[in-house]
Amino acid sequence: LSGMSPDEINGNIGSNKVSADDFSNDALRIKSSRPMPDINASVSYGDRFFNKRLGLLLSASYQNMHRGKDMTYYDYTKASGDIEHRKYYDNKQRLAVHSKMDYPLSAGHKLMWYNGYLMMSEDQVRTGTTDVGANLRKRHNLQQIFNSTLSGDHKFLDGNLSLNWNAVFSIAGNKTPDNAQIYLQGNHIQTNRAYA
Question: Which of 45, 92, 87 is nearest to 64 (CA)?
Fold first, then answer.
C-alpha cells in the first residue's frame, strides 16, 4: 500500500486533477499468509553514569493482536430491510518507545530531556453477504506521535525563587491510505458501486 496520496507523490497538493488512473489496484489483491502470533512484550532499563550525575531511563513495549467477530447488520434505510451477515478480521499493532535523561548542572540546577514515540497500526478485512450479493472491504490505518521535551529546574536565592521551563516539539500523523471496497452481485462486480 502507498502511504501517500497522488497529490503527495506528485508534490503538488491541491493543484492536480486526480483521476482513477492515479490509484493503484494493489489494495484489491489479497494474498493468504501465516499471521504473526499475538505478542505482548516490554523491556525497560535505567541507570546513572558519570559518578551518578547522568540519569538514563529507556522503555519500549510492543503489542500484536488478532481479533475477529461475526455480526448481522440490518439496513433499516431500505424498504426491503436488507440483512447483511458480516465477518471482521482485525490486526492491531502498538509500539511505544520512551527515553528520559536528567543531568544536574550544579546544586539547584537540573536539565531533563524526554523523547517518546507512539505508533498504532490497524488492518481490517470485512466481508459481507446478503441474499443478492456480497462485498469486501480492506482498510489500513496508521497513527504516529513523536514528542521531545527539554526541561530545566532552577533554584535561586537559597531556594526562595524557582524557575521551571520547557521546550517542546511534537508531531502527529494519521493516515488511512488505499481503502478498498468491492461490491459483488452474483459472480460479477457491481461497477456502479465499486470504488477504491
Answer: 92
